[in-house]
C-alpha cells in the first residue's frame, strides 16, 4: 500500500457541515417543537442547499459539473487521468419532515474525505468524484431515485423532465428555474466503483449496538397512485345503498393492505398509504373522489409481484361491488431488489475492521441512489447507526457525531483502497 489509507476524517468539521446544511430549509415541527428539514427536490430551499454544497466542493478544490438532470459531480483528479473514477455521494433533497442526515451524510461525508486527503497531501491513482443526485426522495415529482436512475440509463431524461408536481410544475421547468439544468450529458460513464455512506433509517444497528453496517443490497419498491371515483351526495339525505363512496373504498383498500401484510403470504411485505385526500373534502358530502398512494416494499421480487396482482384483483372486486365506483391506477415507480457487489462489501468490511469498528451486514429497507448506480459499476453502501430505533423521515432522525465520523472514516479508507486498484 503506497498511501496511509487508515486515515480518520475531521469529525467536528463533518458535523458542522451537517448542521449548516440542515439550516437550509429548516422548520420547527409544530407538535414536538423539534427542528426539522423540508428541502423537497428543486424547491428554492433545495437550490440554496445545492449552492452551499457546490461552494464547499469548490473550496475543497473539486471541479464541478452539472448534468441535464441537475445531478452534480465534484471531481478530484488522480495521478492517472485516464483511469475511471471512484464515485461516492448521495442526495440532499429531503422529504417534507426530514432530519439532517438522510442523504446529506453521504454527500458531506464525500466532501469531508476530499478535505482530509487535501490536508494530508494524499493522492490517488484514480480520480475521486462526489455526486449529488436529483430527486432521490421522489416525493415531489413522484418517482424516486430519479437523477441516479437517469444517470444509470434505467429511465430517460425525457421521462424525468416531463414529471409534474401537484401544482403542475414539471421537473424540466424547475431545473431551468433554479438554474440546475446543466449542460453535461445525463448518462454517466461507468465509474470504477461506487460507495455510498448513509444513515440506516431503521432499527437493526441500534438494536445490535453496532455503529457500522455493510449493506448487502436494497429491497424492491413498488409505488402507485390509486384514484377512486364515486359520486358526491348529501350526507343527510342519501340512503346508504344509493351511495358511491370513494372514501369508503379508499379505507377498505388501506385495511386490506394491512391484512395482506399480516397474512404472511407475501414474504416480508411492507405496505404504506402515506398520501390520502378526499374530494370535495367537506363534512356533509359523500366523497366523490379519493386519491391515495400505495408504497410496497419487499426483498423478494416474486412475493412483490404476487402482492401487486392480488392488490389489483382486490380493486376489481371493490369496483364491481359498489355501483357507481370506478378505480384508476397509475404506476409511479417500480424497482426490483438489487444485490450489492460482494467485492465492494468486502472492502468496506475490511476498512471497518482496520478502524477497529464492529460491523454487521444487512439489507437496506430504504431506497438509495446506490441501487441505480449498481447497474453501472461494482457498488455497495456503508450504513451508520441511527439513534431512537433508527427513526427517519422524521425530524427526530439522529446519529451521533462520533458515529457519523466513524462511518466516514470507513468511507475514506474504502475509497482510497478502491482508488488505488
Ligand atoms: C426513500 O427514502 C425511500 O426509501 O422511500
Ligand atoms: Mn436517502
Ligand atoms: Mn429518504
Ligand atoms: Mn431514500
From TrEMBL:
Tell me which residues bind Zn(2+) 2: 102, 137, 393
**What are the UniProt keywords, alphabetically?**
Hydrolase, Metal-binding, Zinc
Query: How is its cofactor bound, per UniProt?
Result: Binds 2 Zn(2+) ions per subunit.
Record's keyword annotation contains Hydrolase: yes
Binding of Zn(2+) 1, residues: 91, 102, 198
The coenzyme or cofactor needed here is: Zn(2+)
Mention any Pfam family matching this sequence. Answer: M20_dimer
Q: Which GO terms describe its molecular function?
A: hydrolase activity, acting on carbon-nitrogen (but not peptide) bonds, in linear amidines; metal ion binding
Q: Which InterPro entries match?
A: Amidase_Cbmase, Bact_exopeptidase_dim_dom, Peptidase_M20, Peptidase_M20_dimer
| Peptidase M20 dimerisation domain segment(s) | 217-317
Q: Which family does it belong to?
A: Belongs to the peptidase M20 family.
Question: Which NCBIfam families does the annotation name?
Answer: hydantase
What is the protein name for this chain? Zn-dependent hydrolase
- Taxonomic classification: Bacteria, Bacillati, Actinomycetota, Actinomycetes, Kitasatosporales
